[in-house]
Structures are given as C-alpha cells and as structure tokens.
Amino acid sequence: MPEVVLEGVPVRFPFEPYEVQKAYMSKVIQCLQQGVNGILESPTGTGKTLCLLCSTLAWLEVKKAEHKARLHNVAGGDADFMSSLSSQLKAGSGSAWGEKNAPPKIIYSSRTHSQLSQAVNELKRTTYSYLKVAVLGSRDQMCIHPEVSKETNNNNKVHMCQLRVKAKTCYFNNQVEAKKDDPEVRQKALDIEDLVKVGRKKTFCPYYMARELKQDADIIFLPYNYLLDPKSRKAHGVELQGNIVIFDEAHNVEKMCEEAASLQIRSTDIALCIDEVTQVMKKMQEMSEGSNIAANDVSEVMPEDFNADDLYTLKALFLELEKAIDSIPIKMGDTGTTYPGSYMFELLEKAEITHHKKNVILEVLEKLVQYLTTNSASPFQRKGAGLQKFSELIKVVFSKDNFSLQHMEYVKQCYKVHVSMEENKKKGGARQDGWGAVKTTNVSNKVGRVISYWCFNPGFGMKDLSEQGIKCILLTSGTLCPLESFTSELQVSFPIQLENPHIIQRHQVWVGTICNGPDGFNLNSSYQNRSDPRYISSLGQTILNFSRIVPDGLLIFFPSYPIMRSCRDEWQNSGIWGRISATKPIFVEPQTKDEFHNAMTEYYQKINDPALKGACFMAVSEGLDFANRNGRAVIITGLPYPPFKDPRVMLKQKYLEETRLKNKVGLTGQEWYKLEASRAVNQAIGRVIRHKDDYGAIILCDNRFAAPNFRTQLSAWVRPFMNSYSTFGPALRDIIQFFKNAQVLLPQPEEKSGKPSISAAYEEPPAAVGAAPVHAHALQAAPARLVVSDATRQKIGQALAEKEDYNNMWSNMNYKKSDGASEKREGGDKSLFSALEKKTSVVDFNSLQSTSQVSCKYDTLQVGNKKRKIKIVSKGEKDLADFLKGPGPSQAASQASQGVTAEGTSCSPEMFSSPGNSQELISGAQKSTTKASSSGVLGSGKVSTSAAVAAISSGKENGETKKLGSIADYIKDVKSQLNKEQYGLFSSAVKNYQKSKDYDTVVGTLASLFSQDVEHHRLFRKFEQFLSKDHRLAFRQSCEEMLDR
To answer: Does the annotation flag 143 for ligand binding?
Structure first.
C-alpha cells in the first residue's frame, strides 16, 4: 500500500493520493499537531472521508508510539535510543500536547447512521482497520430483545430497556461482560449492522456492547446529535475531555446546534402531565385501599421510587404552570408574541420551578415516566409522553450546571420565547382537575398556547462543546462555502481552513442555468410565481424534455414538500406526469423512514432493469447518494429559501440584525436567508458526482441562479463550469453533446444484465402518453448513448443514398381555387414554413390523425384544349396509397401554375387556406372539398396551362416546383416516421424557427428527434434546404458532430 509523508507523519493510503487529497490530509495533520480547530471543505467525490480517516489515524499511530516510547523510557530502556525515538515521534505528533497526556481518542461524528456505516466501510479498506473501533447507535437500531425491540415509541423503548437492565432481567445485557473480549467482537471493525448480527449470533446486547467497546476504543463513531445535544451526550456517556472531535458532513452543524438547544411545549402537553399524574394518584389510592387487588395478584404493586407527596407536589406545580401559561396575553388571529429568552425563567418561576429544584424535579419525573411506561398492570401502559416532554424542557432550560447571572444574560441574548395560539385538534374532552373532581372541559372554548423556546445562536452549543476540554474540533464537508460566514455563526475560532478544488475534469460535469422553459416562459420559483399554472406547466415540460435525454437516473430537487406535491398534482392533471413516467418511472420521496427505504430500493431496481431507460427520483431532502448511473443528472427546480413568514425565520433574521448592529460584525438577516438556500443547493449539487470517474449534469432551472451574487455562494469547484442559457434549445443541444462525449471519454459502469450494448446507437424512446401542446417545441429524446460503430456508419451512407422523390407535392395538402388578386402576393415564402403559417396553410402539424380520412376533389382541369374531371376520394390506407403515387404531368403542371406569381417566386397564400377562409382545415379531422383551377395570373395577363407545362418541362420553373414538392414529401416522410407526440414537437419547433429564426432551438429539437435512429438521419440532413442561408454552414457542421461521430 502506498505511503506518503505529510507534515512529518507517514500516511498509508489505499492508492497513490491525488494532490487535492495530499493537501487535505496535510491540513488535518496540522490541526492535530498544533491542537487547533480546523474547517475543511472538499467536494463530494474527492475521497474526503478516506483522507480524513487515514490522516487522523496515521497521526494517532505516531502519538501512541510516542506514548509507548515514553513509558518504555521510564521503565529503563536504552537512554540514547529512546531519547532519539521520542524526539522523532514528537516531531510527528506535534508539541501542543502535554508530556504526560495519554493518546487521545478520535470521536468521529456524522449526520446519519448510514453515513457512519459508510465511514466504517472506508476504514476497513485501510491498514488502520486493526485499531480498536466502537460505533454508537440508538436502541431503535441495536436492541434485539424480543419484547423491547417491538416497541415503536423510542422514549418508551428507553425506559423499558433501563428497567430490565436495572432489574438484571435482560438476558442479552447480562451476557455483555462475559463476551466483550470475544475475537469476533475485537479483531475487526464492526459497524452497527455487523455488531447486531454478531450480537444475535453470540446472544449479547449490541447496544451495551458498543458502550463497552468505546471504553478503550481508538476511534468512536457516532451521530453528531450525540455530541451537540447535552442530554444525548450524557445519556450515551460520551467523554470529551482530552479527545479530538470530528464533524463530517458538517454543513448541518449550525442548524443542529440551534435545534439541540431549542424546545417547544404546548398547553396540551401540560394538561397531559396533569392527567398522567392524576391517574397515577388514583391508581395508588385504589391499591392502598386494596379494592382491586387480589390476594394472589403480584403484577400490581405499590411503586417504591416515589410516594403520594411527590405526586401532590408535582401536580400542584403543573397546575400553577398551566395557570401561568393561560394568563399570557395573546391576540386572536395574531402570529404570536415574542419575549426575551429570560422570560422562560420568569414563567417557570411562577410555578416554583428553578435551577435549584431542577434535579429533584427531574428525578421524580424520570421515575414516574418509567412507572407509566413499564408497569404492565397499569391501564395507562406505556404512557408518560407529557411528562417526558416536560422533562426535556427542564433539561434544555437549565442545561448549565453552574447557573449564573452571566449565563442568564447570555441566554437573554441568544434565545427568544415565542408564544402563539395552539390549534385545536379536539372538540371536547374530560380530565381530572383539582384533586379528584372530574371536570368536563370544552377545549374549543379555551385557547391553548404554544411556548417556543428558540435558540438563534449556533455558537451557544458549539461554545459549550469546546468548553468540555476538547483538544481540537475538525469540521469538514463538501459544502461549507462561504467559510467566513459559517465560522462567524459558530463563534469558535478556526485558524486552519481549506477550500479544495474538485478532482474531476471539465468533461465530467455539465453545469447550466436554464432561464426559460421550452415554451419560453420564465422559470422562476419565487413565492409570487410558484403557483402560476403557466410556470408549473413550463417546468413540467422542461423536466419532460430532460428526462428523455439524460441516461439512467434523474434526480429532481424541489424547494419544499408542498411545492413538490403541487407540481405533482398539476402534472398529473395535465398529462405531463404520464409522459415523463412513460420514459422513466417516477419515484417521490416519502417522509417516513420505512417508506423511504422501500422507495430507494425500488428506484435502484428500476435503474438496473435492462428493459427500462432509467428512473426519476423527486426529492426535497439532500442526504441521498446517487453515484454512477443512479444519478446522471440533478435538476434543481428552485431556490429552497426558508418560509419567509415563519415566526422562527423572522426572529432569526431579527436576531442577526440586532447582533450585527451591536457587534459591527456578522451576517445580516438577509445574507443568512440567502445562504440557507445556497447551502441546500450546494448539497443537492453534490449528489451526482460521487467519485473521480463519475460524471453527470447539474441543471439549475431557475433564472435567479444566473445572478452574479448567487454564483459567489456556490461551492468553489462549481463556479468554473457554470453556463447560463436564456433560451432552451442551446442547453438541450449542449447536454446531448456532453453525454455523448462522456460515453466515449469516461469509463462506463458495468452493463445492466441483458441490456443491449450502448455502443451501437441511440435507443428509440417509448411513445409518451398524451399529445404535446402546440408550444412545446421541446426535445423528446432517449438517453444520450451514441457511439457510432462502422456498421452504423454504413447504414447512414445507405440512408443518404436513397433516391429523393419530389412528385407528390400536393398529396397531403388541401387547397382551393384562387382568384387573380390573391395570387399577386409579393415576396412570397418559398419554404416549408409557408405550410405552417396558420393564416395561409391548411397543413396542420399538430394533426395526428391519418391522412386517409381526407376527401379531396379536383374540379375541372384544362390540359391543352381538352377538359378532364378528376375526382379522388381517399377512404382508407389503400386509397391513400394510390393517391400518394402523385399526379400526372398535366395535373402537376396545373398545380404548379397556381403557385406562380408575377415574380415567379412564390406560392399564393390562398392556395393553402380553407374554403371560404372560415376555418383552417385539420388534416384528417374533417372532410372538405377543394377545387383547383387552371386559371392563374402572371403580371397582368393569364397564362395558359400549356404554357405552364412547357415552362416546367423546359426547366424554367423547375426550382419552384421541386421546392414545393420537397415540402410535401418531407412532411409526408416525417409524419410517417415519428409518433404523435414527436410530430407535435417537430411542428412546434419549425413554427418557432419561422417566427424567431432561433437556430439553436430548432437544431436541438431536430437532433433529439432524428439522431436516435440511423434510419432518421436522412430527415435531419434534408432539413437543411428549409433553413436560411446564414444557418446552413453551421447546420452542416452540426450534422458532422451529431451524425458522423
């Protein structure tokens, strides 16, 4: 295994580290050697976790060796040798550590248990896996007791477990001491799943075994709420004195610090406390009188941990607190009233709840909750939820053991108490009031209150953590930018900082801001715009198009769950949802853990299904992993700002404004508000690129992302790749090309079982559900997988060599007899687009029915001196086939003569209009009768049919006739090759080009429609004749890039 020396410390790495990895590990070692805090940002995919583990444990190895050398020297080893060795080891471990200090423990924390499991698996890959490891988790994950593990309420599970442990009735816990030195437990690193598996096999408790292992562990893995929450820290016995604390995925540390120090309690919680105490009092009275206890019934016994006096005191306390809360003035319909943080002490003091009485109250509460939870004979079995909530309130408010006026002043600054009305969830109820009388209460007549005790300073919890004697704190994540604001909020110094670039190359990532949807509507998910049906439709069309060109997995992030649900409902009603799911099955992120796990499992199965073209996952939370084909693109649909009118958000902004005004430094409220959104976006961006060989597209579908001030808030590695697109077409074209290049230049994951090789050509997308709207000139493409082989090139050549037929000029068009005036239009359009203009064309590109339903009638045609009546009625496919064989020479001449103006360069607009100009004929939608006359106008005189025939035969009008014939043939050919929705998209794109001359959009659309199948390449190339001269050279280059690779 390669070894590299960094800052004097030899670090063994599973492979030769990259420069960004060396830089990262050097900074980690500097923090450890100097004993100072560090904040390190390194993008997801740069091997951050592996670097963090290797560098930290390499330094710990040196530190442990130094400690052993010192002990050996004291024991009487070779003085010179030991002195030299000690000096060398000291240089590696640093001088900031006391001479007599034992090696510290590494406390490695991350946000979730799954992230911790990933970290343990990374550790197993290294040579440091021999070190002693402990992973702390919850009983919910680790308990294997057959009864306790079935309990769904976590608080109840805790008390049930504690009671059995205390009574020594848990067989699994009793086995921990005897089996803690078992080789299967000690000889290798075990994550939570491993430990539970071994625990079941060896019949010991995994939860308490983990606590036993942490006693002498070198590195301890735990969720970081176990560190930031003083209650959890104490409950899990986490020792911080003299140790090193690492926060991986630390972008959420600020919020967790505030959450751990905050709490909310309701009037109904206090009422529930009164009810629970009253019921226990009643039960104790019944048991003391012996009214319900049989002589041989030992299941119900008098509780020994508390007495009636404790209950009377506790109930009096709750009644006084309820009275004090009810007396808080509040206006009906108001959002609430705000008080300083110290108001909470005043409120509790009215019920004689003070810091000095904290421990006594908590002790009684703990015993009472345990009784209610575990007493099998109690009619209120496993209750105590109200008492548990109140116990947490006491622990949060009186978190400091040494309560002082200085601390109270600090609380006054950092906290706010917000009192609001409680929503009624019941219409009525009855409870015990007073000391035994039953009082029926109509809850609807009594307005309850919600008391919110909110901490707005994350430094409050971080400073408390740093005061526990920690040697140094390391914060690291892929998204901490901007570091200055991050550190200012935590109010702890971080002398060592790093912003690493990404390990990937430019061709591995595409980043673009899409300002407008395919219909040209502005993409902006602001509060004023997000409910606009036009915006929701445009966003849906945008996602629909990207779902067709992004291979495999597509991740779509929404700013919030309500917005995601609103879009889902609207798209289901409009049919967009069905059209997306026709290409990729859609999965929506559930909000429960079990459902989420099932959804992710099924999503991965769809990704690996060779019969499908991937899947879509619509989500809000950012803690997801979509490596390789699980996520080839992420679409960010908007900026996830916190709800502006939420009282907590408003108070946070107000707190920051007051603090900045007072201290002259720090964030403003508006800066914090914007940073909340940008950090969430940065996290979502990091979901796609997960390792050095990964690749993907980052699609920002909100024009606010294009603002210069927002770009500075993105992670440093993203900024160089950013592009902004004001129109939709160029973005689609560039993404198609990006995935084509990635397929060629980058190593591909293992093929799906049974899936055809992706080296042949694009795959045909499935037909979408429903028809595209008229304006949806959007791409409808399969995942971009084009790597053209020699066989494919041969097919292209054959397709291009096919003979082009221009004879069926009017085969699927309706026209009417025109008068002379109508044929004098000057500057007529000689292109395909004249057949798409609503005022002049009866060819409807949105018509999706068969042309076999059209009835065409030709009136009298004069050829030479003879008259012929030709009547052709098409009733079926056979008739249509006969009709499309094309007109005879005389008929063609007559038709051509009608399209020649005085200048000889234009078709008459009336020849494309419906009879009587009453309405546009829809091809196949209704029967109509049109007439063609041999009369026409050239200048001021009439031109005979024979003259027209002569002109055509002599080639004078050859270009005009071929042009018109080309239009008809091309339309017929396109219609026959595309499905309904594809044809609608083609039509919209062509019309848009006629109006705006937007070359990029029309070419992007054509590429998606015709580059997927080599049989369609000829349709792509033939379109050149309908482009303006300025665009033809660029189009030929596009053909070479897209078709001739």
So the answer is: yes
CB atoms within 10 A of CB 999: 18
Give the predicted TM-score (pTM) of the model. Answer: 0.68
DSSP E strands, 646-770 = 696-700, 722-725
Interior angle at CA 932, CA 929 and CA 936, nearest 5: 150
Q: Of 1031, 525, 517, 529, which is closest to residue 727 (Cα–Cα)?
A: 517
Q: What is residue 579's predicted lDDT score, i.e. its pLDDT? A: 93
Per-domain boundaries in the chain: 3-136+214-258+471-499, 261-291+302-457, 804-977
Cα–Cα separations (whole angstroms), residue 768 to 517, 545, 732, 990, 1038: 19, 11, 19, 20, 27
- The CA dihedral of 84, 86, 91, 95, to the nearest 10 degrees, is -140
The CATH number of the domain covering residues in 3-136+214-258+471-499: 3.40.50.300
pLDDT at 160 over 90: no
DSSP alpha helix (H) spans, 608-668: 647-663
Taking only the tens place, the pLDDT of each residue in 710-766 is: 888 888 888 889 999 999 999 999 999 999 998 888 877 765 544 333 333 333 333
The predicted pLDDT at position 74 comes to 58
856 labelled binding-site residue: no
Q: Is 161 annotated as a binding residue?
A: yes
Annotated binding-site residue? 257: no
Task: Tell me the residue type at 840.
Answer: T
Q: How far is the C-alpha of 523 from the C-alpha of 535, rounded, in Å?
A: 7
What's the CA gap between 739 and 549, in Å, rounded?
9
Secondary structure (H, E, C), 939-994: CCEECCHHHHHHHHHHCCCHHHHHHHHHHHHHHHHHHHHCCHHHHHHHHHHHHHHH
Higher pLDDT: 354 or 810? It is 354
Query: Could you give the CA distance from residue 977 to residue 802 in angstroms, rounded to a whole number?
Result: 15
Q: How far apart are CA 696 and CA 719, in angstroms?
A: 16
> Between 483-490 and 253-260, two packed helices, what is the crossing angle to 10 degrees?
20
pLDDT tens, 539-573? Answer: 999 999 999 999 999 999 999 889 999 999 999 99
